């Protein structure tokens, strides 16, 4: 007798083996053919909406695990909100302008680029970005992410570019935007200005030097008995900025002293740093002659240590006692604090450095030398003049360009800025931060501190592939021309033709009919030759996407990105949102950490600890990758390794086989005849329902 047939065993067609790498593409194809996403939109169009606005990844290169955690977390939230009774559309987007794309196109074109027009080069950039949008689009969909993949938003779409220029034009009309010369981050390799969000800090070795500035004015009223030469001593790690020196800054509240040395004259330094500085300089025999108030030295003149010009002694609150001498070498064209302090004393914003980082031809002794290489020449010159007290190398954290990874400099050039304070943008933004839910809560403190301390936003970039700043300049008097009519006309032209038309046509074609300079009545104009910071491009997506698309609206319910976006997209979106509407563009901001290996180390090809999304999908399936994203504590850095994925694959198998066992038990369950009412259930059944209720509750609370 076949006893197997007499056993009531679970029975189901639900396979034990998932076979995900083969089955998932078929499922995705089926969902697309059945237009599941479109049907969801139609069915839920009258429901309350939940909008998670997608921060645009950059259209360059293949996707990595950072993309995977980001997009899968978004998909989990969007799907759960949809299932909770909301209408939750998801519009993916891409950031398409910027230097990395332009660099790659430059490499591809080579010498051919010299024969091409700006518009032809821009078309190559557009084509390059479009290619990677398609590549990344397929990779994102393979993650199982559902959304409007047939109609994403791209910052290079004509209407999007038009809205970028409109938002920029509105800032100009409102008075927030201005053209000014002040020190900004400058990359000599990329030859463009950089924003705060485009700066990374890495260790860098610099010369650490102590330099004597000879006091030129008579100090006999302050130091009546001193017969020796008197010097103010500065300390700097950027000798290349010495040619740009115009002053020496002291703190208004510090006490300074005149210190007599054996061979180096009388040195003026901060009283609290005497022992430290003398020890560093190797002076054992010295005498403190007298204490001096910084106010008594204010507006006295020193002689520049190299050139025949004055260095003015000024007062500034930025001077500290943490390092150096308490006397700060001041080059107004090479530092924000130097610029602010120098401006009060009428010091010029002098920056004798060219775009490529070499000294200008009028810089005696060092003309044409690259600034970092010139450190050696400058120190040798100072030493030959007996004004260099000490020179040694020191390693310290230094700003680098996020693209080329080279050290950057502070350099004053004419740039476009959005003022943080002229129209009260800083305070309005700080107030709005408190109306946003920050997840985790530390996100609030982080962005609040950034906005509170940030300088004016440098908007302009000196490249080709981007959206032009939509202003004109009078040929005769150089006055800036921007009006309601000019902003509206450019918006219409860009909507129809893309921003390429700015590079293709002359100013007269682009300007309103009858345009005239208000200052000198000239009718001759030139176009501005700067493009916008790409953070402005993505930052105005709340206007170009949420405000423009049917079914979307601002503020979004949520923005969700990595923790680096407090200084990136969260930041630029907040400033443009508050600046243009008075409100934050989001109700909540969720931040996740970075993906690291199982030991907490950053992933690197050279180290060999990179786990690529496609390798996981090809071996285990996207569902295992999604299980990794769902199981991770996103608030901190998220670990992944082949070992972690293997463990999750085993967990996935257990979940699947539990489901299979449960389905098998229901194979002969007939709802019509076998379903019982609650009162007819056994105590055990009611207990199981009670447990199920708690499981469901816990799950729903977790999704919330």
Q: How would you describe this protein?
A:
The two termini are 56 Å apart. It is built from 23 helices and 27 strands. The mean pLDDT is 92. 38% of the residues lie in helices and 19% in strands. The protein is of the alpha/beta class. Helix 4 crosses helix 5 and helix 19 packs across helix 20. The strands form eight sheets. Strands 11-9-10-7-6-15 form a six-stranded mixed sheet, sandwiched between helices. Strands 1-24-25-17 form a four-stranded parallel sheet. A four-stranded antiparallel sheet has the order 5-4-16-18.
How is this fold's topology laid out?
Layout: H1 20-33, H2 36-43, E1 52-53, H3 65-83, E2 93-94, H4 99-109, H5 118-142, E3 153-154, H6 158-174, E4 177-187, E5 192-194, E6 199-214, E7 230-236, E8 247-250, E9 255-261, E10 266-270, H7 274-281, E11 286-293, H8 294-297, E12 301-303, E13 310-315, E14 327-330, H9 336-344, H10 371-384, E15 388-401, E16 409-418, H11 425-433, E17 437-439, H12 442-453, E18 457-458, E19 460-461, E20 472-474, E21 480-481, H13 484-497, H14 500-504, H15 507-510, E22 525-527, E23 531-532, H16 534-539, H17 541-546, E24 558-562, H18 569-581, E25 588-592, E26 595-596, H19 613-619, H20 622-631, E27 638-639, H21 642-665, H22 671-674, H23 683-703
Parallel strand pairs: 1-24, 2-3, 7-10, 8-13, 17-25, 24-25, 26-27
Antiparallel strand pairs: 4-5, 4-16, 6-7, 6-15, 8-14, 9-10, 9-11, 12-13, 16-18, 19-23, 20-21, 20-22
Keywords:
single chain; 704 residues; alpha/beta; six-stranded mixed β-sheet; four-stranded parallel β-sheet; 23 helices; 27 strands; 38% helix; 19% strand
